Amino acid sequence: MVSSRACRPDGQQVTERCLPEECAVAIIHDGTTYAVLMASPTDLEDLAIGFSLTEGAIANMAAVAEFEMVGQADGIELRLWLRAGEGGAAGDRRRAIVGGSGCGLCGVESLAAAIHQVAKVTAGLRFSHGEIAAAAASLSGRQRLGDATRAVHAAGFWTRSEGLVAIREDVGRHNALDKLVGAMARMGRDGSGGIVVLTSRVSVEMVQKTARFGASVLVAISAPTALAVRTADAAGIALAAVARVDGFEIFCGAERIAQ
């Protein structure tokens, strides 16, 4: 808890506020630093696995032989030891500098690496308008850190048979999605059977990560960028955003969403 001075029209008042933590997190593959992120220090194994998957550094969980988390004076190292022959992709999109909690592409070393083509998502179910609304509403009351601080993002995965399967939170929206992907991968699951739900806006890298996860439907509370819509359309992802209690907007992939 941190003390703050609340300034209101009727005066000032000292109050206590719960604030989220963030710290430097290094993701290390076979002893070589792959990326350094600013992230919430929770669900960090999920973050290491999910980030490595959505960046294309590893193909699946089977590539990881061992995981180790080591605290340092200035942050946390997430050490992944990969099975023989699995580390070749890590250098293709290596992050050269620290990525801030609000940045999904910081440190990418070329324009081509930033706006790379994603494989088309061909699997996936069709969902009704009611199911899209239910997926968006499923995060309500489940954001423990968000409800306490009002300062973090959440990403969830919803299916029609299970409801909200998993939710992860982080100060960075990209980190929240990576944590979700990592959590699902550790369950032995991909995104083909359900809907990814975000509390954040949808930028191009959020679509890229969703495509890597194999999810065909992406729902967000906030609006997308124009590039995100074009990328989702090219990837075969249905993108529904500005999801509120009174409805949502379909920006592409309407064929995957039935009335």
What layout of secondary structure does this protein have?
Layout: E1 2-8, E2 11-17, E3 23-29, E4 32-39, H1 44-54, E5 64-72, E6 75-82, E7 98-99, H2 111-114, E8 127-128, H3 129-137, H4 144-149, E9 153-159, E10 163-170, H5 173-186, E11 195-198, H6 204-213, E12 217-220, H7 226-235, E13 238-244, E14 247-252, E15 257-258
Parallel strand pairs: 3-6, 4-7, 8-15, 11-12, 12-13
Antiparallel strand pairs: 1-2, 3-4, 5-6, 9-10, 9-11, 13-14
Helix pairs in contact: 1-5, 5-6, 6-7
Structural class, by secondary structure, is: alpha/beta
Instruction: List low-confidence stretches.
Output: none
Strand order across the largest sheet:
10-9-11-12-13-14
Distance, first to last CA: 46 Å
**Major β-sheet, in short?**
6 strands, mixed
Basic shape: flat
Q: In total, how many beta strands?
A: 15
Q: How much strand?
A: 25-35%
How would you summarize what this structure contains?
The chain is α/β, with parallel strands linked by helices and 259 residues long. Helices cover 25% and strands 34% of the residues. Belongs to the FdhD family.
Protein model, in words:
By secondary structure, this protein is an alpha/beta fold. It folds into two domains: 23-114, Roll (Ubiquitin-like (UB roll)), CATH 3.10.20; 127-258, Cytidine Deaminase, domain 2 (3-Layer(aba) Sandwich), CATH 3.40.140.10. The protein is built from seven helices and 15 strands. The chain is flat.
